[in-house]
Amino acid sequence: MSTEDPVDLFSKPADGPGGQLCLPDGRPPRGLTAGGWVRTTGWLQFGDWPVSSALMAALLGMLGAMVCAVLLVSTFPVAAGVLVVVVPLLFGAAWGILTTFVQPASLARNIGTKPAERLSPGDVVRLYGSIGPVGQVTAVTLAESVRVAFHGGRHRTWARREVVHVAELLS
Q1: pTM, whole model, 2 decimals?
Q2: 75-110: buried (b, 16+ CB within 10 Å) or exposed (e) per residue?
Q3: Is-contact 147 141, C-beta < 8 A?
Q4: pLDDT tens track for 28-41
Q5: Structurally, what CATH architecture does the domain formed by 17-39+106-169 represent?
Q6: How far apart are CA 17 and CA 14, in angstroms?
Q7: Domain ranges for the chain
């Protein structure tokens, strides 16, 4: 989704058959776990654009390849050059395979924050700060603290004024 596409920030994600969490197009999130929370990537963003974690893996591979290339360039110059080109591609592809097939993860981006006391059913929030898995709020109980029930049965308790990161699932 590009940032030019219209986004309804006030719509709530729909539940699918049997109350299952679904994306706006009706598909379940790729990272949906049996416990009802969603494993995510997209922890780094510039404005509204999440940076691909596969790109980050490729950059890490590039850094490692460049260090190895410096060590190899005097004795094996061709191998050093091949390393710098091939290793980042392998790291990015391996991360893509990992987050798509081995440990599926949904792309998510943070769209704002709000105090825990203002959460409402249907909100999709980060469970542990500004990065990590997300859950869809199903019930909010206000007392001295805020007890939030999530899709799948998980519960969290936050202080009333603690800031919670609201997220949007993109895949």
Answers
A1: 0.74
A2: eeeeebeebbeebbeebbeebbebbeeeebbbbbbb
A3: yes
A4: 899 998 888 999 88
A5: Roll (2.30)
A6: 10
A7: 17-39+106-169, 49-102
